[in-house]
Design brief:
Structural class: alpha/beta
Number of helices: 5
Helix content: 25-40%
Number of strands: 7
Largest sheet: 7 strands, mixed
Order of helices and strands: HEEEEEHEHEHH
Strand content: 25-35%
Amino acid sequence: IRVNLSTTAYARSVGLVKNQKSDAWVGSYLNEEEGVVYPVAHFDADVVAALFVKKSGLEWRGEKSLAGKSVAWIKGYELHEYLDVEFDKREFSSRKNVESLLSSGRLDYFIDARAELESYFGEAIKAQTLHAETIKLLNLYLAFADNERGKKLSAIFDERFPKLLASGEIKTLFAKWGNQYIW
């Protein structure tokens, strides 16, 4: 199997697979989209976290802390679908103004994968200007096109990935690329 990789916006990746112009996209939550094929095995997990200004009086009590608050995320990620509390939903196309919105109190929480928060807001988190708390783990899957090739690729993934996991090869790959090993 030869893999041709391309990088594009998440929503575009989903559209390419759903329209069968690509075979798979990486990083879907289970059953996030209809009209695609999900393997049984997940390959990783997002550590979903909330970013906020601690001095604003917000007390972290887990996911229930979000209830009734102004909560945002990156458009297309649909993180609210996986949370069990109601809040004022906002979507942003980028992380660009999040820090100022949190600091000014116009936004209570910004939710994202912890790795993304640490990458983009790492300096503010280290300086304790912003605080990040884990909400939950969400398993990540490859999502394949709903056609014969997609079904075949999904079956191959389900056959081979558990073997790579059991052999330790996945752990080695994660370590090589500096990724957190979830299992």
